[in-house]
Amino acid sequence: MPVDTLVLDYSVILGFVQFMDVDASGSVLVTDMASSLVHLFASTGQHQATYSMDTCLPIDGYHRAWSARFANNDRVILSTMGGDMVVFDRAGNCLAAKRRLLPTTLSFCSRGDSIFVFRGVRGLGAESTSIMGVFSMDLELERKIRLELPRLFRLNINHLGIGGRNMDCFGDGPYYKYHEDMDGRSVRRRSQVTLARPEFFVQRDEDIGRTGERMASERASKLIGLYALDGDTRLSLFRNVGKQYRPDGAVGRNVYGLSIASNSRKFRSVSTVPPKFPKTAGHGYLYFLGDPVQMADGDVGNPTVIRYRFKAPEAADG
User: Fold this and answer.
1) How far, CA to CA in Å, does 146 sit from each of 17, 188, 279?
2) Which tens digit of pLDDT belongs to each residue from 73-125?
3) Is the dihedral of CA 79, 83, 87, 92 positive or negative?
4) pTM of the shown model
């Protein structure tokens, strides 16, 4: 059952909700791709602030906002896929701004005073690289981390998954994912985490062709999102789940699956197939977009945000 339903202030009209983030108080940060603006809403749904990258980093044209996240010391970080990044305080004052931190920014997250930026895979075969950059809150490069390479190069070069969800930060550091994976990968390569083993997962044996997806691979699962449910619990989102797992009330042709696992073996991993996929997760809660609010004058308002609490199983994996 949902814990509550949040109605987002209609004084700001949302177009396409590209990305969402939440903080410990229940405040919600919404990236609207239609306007390339980011809006801050209180836990009550009241609109508190709007952020635009153009305020701190003006260019000819406009920035296409890709994701925005809460960070340490009440900071808000905005990023474009092209690698531009801006750090605000909550009031909307610019604290730092830089163009093209890395050639691309698939995803980023922060831990303490560090921002981790996942560039993703570049090149095929022996020339391939996969890099995560570590930046200060002033957006100065501190170091680069060379990551393990994926098994299937073309799949990961040609598919993005859920925007901004290729990595997330936890108490034991950042984790990242590739589309053929059954679980996220720790940058620290820890061996004691509880492994996710969702029953609906179907291994992908071959890479996609040069011109797109092979029909024979459509039945294979694809890991399209990685979320920090809390500092010790990761949530993985899968696409191409078999139709036999489709729950009552699921809409659309795609069936999505969730797997939840502990980074410290506190409980056995669990999986489920929800009617729709979560827009964000954090601090022990999953957040889903609901139907738009019907206004008294007949107009349609913003979508609702429905929040669910995750209750971990008691038994731990052996």
Assistant:
1) 32, 11, 29
2) 899 999 998 899 999 999 999 999 999 998 889 999 999 999 999 998 887 76
3) negative
4) 0.92
